[in-house]
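Appendix B. Chain record.
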Amino acid sequence: MPKEPTLGRLGMEARSVKFPDGSRGIILVKAGIPQDEADALAAQVWAERPEAGVPKG
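Structure tokens predicted for this chain:
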């Protein structure tokens, strides 16, 4: 993984983020947003994810 954000298609870039449980991941964000905003988006995705093992009803 490159140390710098990687530019992608249509003004997006892949960004390394830290999730609330301490794990790390990669998300696509709008190019140029600050790292703290990318981490906040990752936390939002984490909070909205469905609970593991529970079928959608």
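Further analysis of this model is presented in Appendix C.
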